[in-house]
Amino acid sequence: MQVLLLVCSVILMAVVFWDAFITVFSTHGAGPLTRWWTGGVWRLLLMIHHRRPIHRVLSMAGPVMLLAVVCVWYALLATGWVMFFCSGDALVVDNLTQEPANIEKIIYFVGTTLAGVGYGDLVPGRFPWTLWSNFAAFTSTVLLTTSLSYLLPIVAASLERMYLAQRIFGIGKTVPEFIVESWQGRSSGALDQYLLSLSAEVDRHAHKHLAYPILQYFHSADWKQSPGKAMLMFADAIFLISCGAAESARPPRPFIKLVNASIDNYAQLATAQAMLPGHIDSVNTEALRLDTLRKMDIPVVDEAEFDLALRSYAKRRGKLVALCEQDGWR
User: Fold this and answer.
1) Which of 148, 163, 196 finishes a domain?
2) Which of 70, 168, 212, 317 has the fewest other C-beta atoms within 10 Å?
3) Residue 123 DSSP SS3
4) 136 and 164 both lie in a single domain
5) For range 49-60, the mean pLDDT
6) Where is the Potassium channel domain (predicted)?
């Protein structure tokens, strides 16, 4: 039994540090433990949200889960050390009477040790357990310092998400409005210059989803600050302009190539850690029609050519629609 406790404690603490290392230092998303429980909580919230909207609750879920990640790591680390000091006889003793500590006192001893307080009423029984108690305090310091330094960049990144959405929706709230407000019907239109700055910002935002996977749980109660909805509208507008407008009425190819690459990058990286529904390949594209451009007196391509481009665009749009749903927006 004592050997089993020792082995379990070592495995548990190794899992905690591996999960923290992957989450904080890796650019491949969250660790398996963090991804499992945060994803489960978010799925549960979305199930409730789809029955009855709870945007305010969802907007608090991201910050709460961010703090909970640190608390879960610390709690599991403490559990591992409690199991470790319970794996032998008299590993922790009363400093005055030298009597072995029971389970309640060991929990108290581990708590004071990991917190760096060390009141001295309970101490390790003998060498080498004195060294292990020092190592326990060291592991706690490393874990808490690393994880707490991880919090502030995520908060800053969540604000950048809202800023990106506001920049896109600042031009127009819908696809027709976006095209009308930004496109002047010639290659030197305002949209050309706007694409350059937005493309770089979209790329930065996409890569932060890998560095900070918990960003996907930062929900805004205002749809005008939702990056998922903004990117979907932005991508639809660019698709209509680049594939629906006639060659003479399209923006220059380098601009379109650049912004499409940024949108593809966003769709790929943002969905790498997201919990996407299974219908992303059968997304509805009824809203994308050449009549939208005809009403603006923009010359359009042949219907057959547009339908071919639309089938190619459907897969990318499916990912963007799924990101909207994963963010709590239909």
Assistant:
1) 148
2) 70
3) strand
4) no
5) 91
6) 75-151
Give the angle subtended at the CA of 122 by the CAs of 119 and 123, to the nearest 5°. 100
pLDDT score at 64: 93
The range of the structural domain enclosing residue 38 comes to 2-148
Angle ∠(57,59,65) on CA atoms, nearest 5: 85
Short-list 285, 297, 284, CA closest to 245: 297
pLDDT tens-digit readout, 110-119: 898 888 887 7
CA pair distance 38, 34, nearest whole angstrom: 6
List CB contacts of 81: < 8 A, sequence separation 6 or more: 9, 13, 110, 113, 114, 136, 139
- On whether both 179 and 271 belong to a single domain, the answer is yes
Q: Examine the domain organization and report whether 221 and 273 are in the same domain.
A: yes
Question: 158 near 62, Cβ under 8 Å?
Answer: yes
Instruction: Compute the distance between CA of residue 303 and CA of residue 318 in angstroms, rounded to an integer.
Output: 22
List C-alpha distances in Å: 93 to 32, 81, 90, 116, 159: 37, 15, 6, 18, 50
- Which one of 148, 173, 188 terminates a domain? 148
d(CA 277, CA 280): 7
Give per-residue pLDDT as tens, 240-254: 888 888 877 777 777
Are residues 306 and 170 both part of a single domain? yes
132-151 mean pLDDT: 87
Summarised one tens digit per residue, pLDDT across range 268-327 is 877 766 655 544 555 666 778 888 888 888 888 888 888 888 888 888 888 888 888 888
User: Total domain count for the chain?
Assistant: 2
